């Protein structure tokens, strides 16, 4: 492969892709929370046990709805999407944003496709399967609790790290295919 054109490289592979949480799915979750909040409110007036259950329900579903709205608005107003996919890696904006470099990744797969997830496996998780040396380094750099979690995640979901792919503006399988395509494109450009 002497030229970029012969390698199958496409300028699309360098264009950033931004993926947000779906407004409609989040609004649906909030709409589901509202009847539970109202039901919990009505329970407050039905005695001591009802008051305890009602207050607990209002706090649980009320805070849940507020958190959903907060994340949805903060993503849109700040202009910082949940996933930013670049030519050399991705940025995942979670509680602590993290950058995943394609140079460190062996493959991306939905948890259910790896076949190791057991009954807790769900396609809502996109597995990030690191190269063996990178996974060993990440394991050694982890705290004791981090090592336990990495082993647990690997046994339960098929990979030590994952990306939540639920409720996004792109379908899970399409996101997985896009990331795998970007990874393969990156590897073909940087092959030795």
Structure write-up:
The protein starts with 16 loop residues before the first strand and ends with a helix. It has helices at 23-43, 48-78, 111-114, 132-141, 144-157, 172-189, and strands at 17-19, 83-85, 89-92, 98-101, 105-110, 125-130, 161-164. The strands form two sheets. A four-stranded antiparallel β-sheet has the order 1-2-3-4, covered by helices on one side. Helix 1 packs antiparallel against helix 2 (48-78). The radius of gyration is 21 Å and the shape is elongated. It has 192 residues and is an alpha+beta fold.
What's the structural blueprint in terms of helices and strands?
Blueprint: E1 17-19, H1 23-43, H2 48-78, E2 83-85, E3 89-92, E4 98-101, E5 105-110, H3 111-114, E6 125-130, H4 132-141, H5 144-157, E7 161-164, H6 172-189
Antiparallel strand pairs: 1-2, 2-3, 3-4, 5-6, 6-7
Helix pairs in contact: 1-2
* Approximate shape: elongated
Question: How far is the first residue's CA from the last residue's CA?
Answer: 11 Å
Number of helices: 6
DSSP strand content: 15-25%
Number of strand segments: 7
Order of neighbouring strands in the sheet with most strands: 1-2-3-4
Largest sheet: 4 strands, antiparallel
